[in-house]
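Researcher: Let's do a round of design. I'm pasting the structure tokens now; please hold your answer until I've finished.
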């Protein structure tokens, strides 16, 4: 049966109370990207970066999955083919909504990473500057998230899934960050139908076969119902 690949971004978690990046009042209106989302920013001021991610970890821990996360999990459970969820989000709301095997291409708030030896482990609720790595003891613990200039995770798997997709959907992402912004082209080249579900048209909206506008908690459950009706 047909494989569906779904890419999600910050917009799907907005109605769960988590801030997006580029919307008015979003995270980048409050912080300079280069200070908190680059390895250079972390090297310059690790305390600022840990503070930024500690606050987001605390906020994400309180957030609940919304109807859009739950609808995607329902699609994954009931669709007769494979439904692959690739998220740029570092929260765990897809899993909280019941989704399985979510591919976190930009890492997770739940993870810690050693900047010296690349060891991964579970992050404590609050990370602090100079915490030793449990593997190599270097005082270089950082959040296990992907910053600008770094290679996103699981790219080979993602490109394999895109090459086999019959339907590709991008939900709640502005299409301004690569390589995720180019997935629509990969999927289209592989012959997939492409659909965007977003509050406002993304930068790449004209590349999609269909664009559905509105809040994710309304559009995503309706879209899932429509797909399930077409089985
Ligand atoms: C709603 C809604 C509601 C709101 N319902 N919708 C020039 C050209 C091309 C590329 C580059 C270039 N110069 C540099 C690059 C590369 C760079 C890049 O893309 N830069 C751009 C700024 C141009 N990319 C990288 O460095 C990446 N690595 C890389 O490219 O490695 C080389 C490589 C090459 C080829 C293949 C593979 C690798 C790494 C990018 C890392 C991004 N990291 C961040 C931080 C992660 C940790 C964290 O969370 O803090 O990831 S930045 C931030 O942006 C975060 C997000 O995941 C990402 C995307 O944001 P997203 O999710 O789209 O959010 P918003 O806020 O932008 O949009 C929200 C959307 O929701 C909006 O459209 C709203 O309308 C909508 N919305 N409410 C539905 N209720």
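Researcher: That's everything. Go ahead.
Model: Designed sequence:
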């Amino acid at each position: 049966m047909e494989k569906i690949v779904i890419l999600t971004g910050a917009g799907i978690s907005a109605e769960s109370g988590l801030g997006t990046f580029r919307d008015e009042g979003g995270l980048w209106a409050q912080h300079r990207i280069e200070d908190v989302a680059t390895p250079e920013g972390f090297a310059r001021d690790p305390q600022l970066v840990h503070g930024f991610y500690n606050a987001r970890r605390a906020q994400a821990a309180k957030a609940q999955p919304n109807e859009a996360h739950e609808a995607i999990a329902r699609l994954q459970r009931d669709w007769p083919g494979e439904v692959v969820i690739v998220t740029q989000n570092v929260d765990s709301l897809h899993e909280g909504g019941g989704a399985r095997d979510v591919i976190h291409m930009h890492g997770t708030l739940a993870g810690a990473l050693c900047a010296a030896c690349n060891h991964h482990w579970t992050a404590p609720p609050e990370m602090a500057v100079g915490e030793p790595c449990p593997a190599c003891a270097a005082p270089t613990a950082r959040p296990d998230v992907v910053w600008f200039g770094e290679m996103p995770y699981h790219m080979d798997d993602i490109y394999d899934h895109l090459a086999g997709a019959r339907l590709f959907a991008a939900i709640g992402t502005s299409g301004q960050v690569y390589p995720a912004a180019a997935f629509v082209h990969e999927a289209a080249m592989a012959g997939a139908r492409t659909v965007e579900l977003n509050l406002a048209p993304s930068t790449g909206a004209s590349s999609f076969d269909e664009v559905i506008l509105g809040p994710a908690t309304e559009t995503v459950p309706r879209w899932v119902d429509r797909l399930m009706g077409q089985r």
